Amino acid sequence: MDFEWSWLLLGLPLAFMLGWLASRLDWRQMRVLQRSSPRTYFQGLTYLLNEQQDKAIDVFVEAVQSDPETIELHFALGSLFRRRGEYHRAVRVHEHLLARADLSAADRARAQWGLAQDYLKIGLFDFAEQALQPLIGTELEPQAQTALLYVYERLRDWPQALALLERIDAQANSAPGADAAGRQPRMLGRQVHYWCEQAQQAARARDYPQAQALLQQAQAQASALAAAGGAQQHVRPAMEHIQLLQQQGQHLQALQAGLELARQQPEAMPLVASCVRELLPRVDAQQPALQQLHTLLRAQYQREPSLDVLLTLVAIEQRLGWPQATQWYVEHVRRRPSLVAAARWMQAQFDSLQGIAAQEGGDSAAAVQASLYKALQPRLHYRCTQCGFETQHYFWQCPGCQSWESFPPRRVEEL
């Protein structure tokens, strides 16, 4: 059959018209998507600014379902879920992102960092550590190292934390333009705490030689930091040494170590006074170190009154059998108003009149003493300067916010 050229002449214009119509449809669809996508962003942003997170999440979820390729919406959803406490949904969002093969290196690092933050918020520190490890060598390495340090501290994995801190220090020193003056002394000061924490673990296991060796390393690190930066030397290794001697039953040696620390670093006197006060019942009152400590505390109190120094002065004089020991409370109240000192003085008066009170109805006196004791206890707490956490015992790391050295060596009443 002969080919009809007339059909070709008719088909070419028709094919051209169909192609033109298809391109117009694609262009219109693309313009619709371009208009609707920013509209979705703006609508979700409006809800966020109005603190309507539920509506913002609904808008973003709908947008993600209609267009799964929107990476930024996934990040926004993950952040919103984490802020709302829906950590498991945030984990699923970031895991979905990491499963995509077309994700760029920068976006993959962002998704990995978001996943690590989700696990940190949940408290799954093992999973958080696994999520943070791939970030080493990326642009987010500094944030990842700081988060890893937090993870190791929460897991109380002090050797790992110490090794990581040494790597951070080595990287800082090898950076262009780095010098010894820029070694982040506050960060490096944590090394002293890490050695001391390991010493505490060894002491609890009754491995006293190992604990002593670790404290010597901590002391050497503290001395090196003080010499390099000109700052005051850390007192924690010496304080831990006093407590280690006390745990071994070497009470006189612990008292002598406290006396030596008080001579070398007077600013640590309140902590030393609080520590040695527990040793007084176990030390012979005739020991010269007890009298020497009393002289040192008295001189320090005249320069700068402190509740711990006051209480230890009274305890030493009572241990020595001096009858006017409680007059220190009156002296303290005269110098500055103090509920603690006044309550302690009243308790001493009740104790001295215990026989008379027993004859005239000792229950009333006991009730007053119990009320005074209850009233003054909160004023004897320590308070974190970062989060306000209050505790009866002194901590080198705040149990509330995990900050190091955030407790002043002063009681709440003095603050």
Automatic annotation (TrEMBL):
Gene Ontology MF annotations: iron ion binding
Q: Which InterPro entries match?
A: LapB, Rubredoxin_2, TPR-like_helical_dom_sf, TPR_rpt
Q: What are the start and end residues of each TPR repeat?
A: 37-70
- What is its subcellular localisation? Cell inner membrane
Is the Transferase keyword given for this protein?
no
Q: Which Pfam families match?
A: TPR_7, Zn_ribbon_LapB
Q: What does this protein do?
A: Modulates cellular lipopolysaccharide (LPS) levels by regulating LpxC, which is involved in lipid A biosynthesis. May act by modulating the proteolytic activity of FtsH towards LpxC. May also coordinate assembly of proteins involved in LPS synthesis at the plasma membrane.
The family line of this record is:
Belongs to the LapB family.
What the entry lists under HAMAP family is as follows:
LPS_assembly_LapB
Protein name (Swiss-Prot/TrEMBL): Lipopolysaccharide assembly protein B
